[in-house]
Amino acid sequence: MSFFTCSKQSLHTNTHSLGFLYCTLYIVEKSIIKYLKKLKLNPTPSGHNKDSWIAKCPNSQNHFITVTTLKDEWGCGYCRKKGTILDLKKWVKELEYLVILDGFE
Ligand SMILES: [Zn+2]
Q: Residue 86 domain-assigned?
């Protein structure tokens, strides 16, 4: 777990004044959206409120996952998957692994 230390102090000095815990949460929040962007899953604010986002499901082009940055959680109702960014990374790895297996058949 790398979330216990802050490696980006210069990028968000202001949040440090609110305490160490807030700082670690801040990094986790940002990283889940950044990770979805890296996967080209097109995360966009859902419009309901500033903490609510949607993105393409890594398992399908035809439906969306929802992301709550406030709680650092995501979920897919179709795939019945949800969790934190760590769960998301694990699931994406599983999906990539399945694609590789398909390629060998
Ligand atoms: Zn899904």
A: yes
With left for phi above 0 and alpha for psi between -120 and 50, is residue 80 left, alpha or beta?
A: left
Please give the pLDDT value at position 4.
39
CA of 77 to the centre of ligand 1 (A): 7
Average pLDDT of the chain to the nearest whole number: 77
**How many domains, in total, are found in the chain?**
1
Q: Ligand 1 center to residue 50 CA distance, Å?
A: 22
**Percent of the chain beyond pLDDT 90?**
48
Ligand 1 centroid from CA 89, angstroms: 14
Is residue 21 packed enough to be buried (19+ CB in 10 Å), middle (13-18) or exposed (0-12)?
A: exposed
pTM: 0.67
Range of 40's domain? 9-104
Is residue 82 included in any domain, yes or no?
Answer: yes
Q: Is the pLDDT of residue 88 over 90?
A: yes
Note whether residue 4 is domain-resident: no
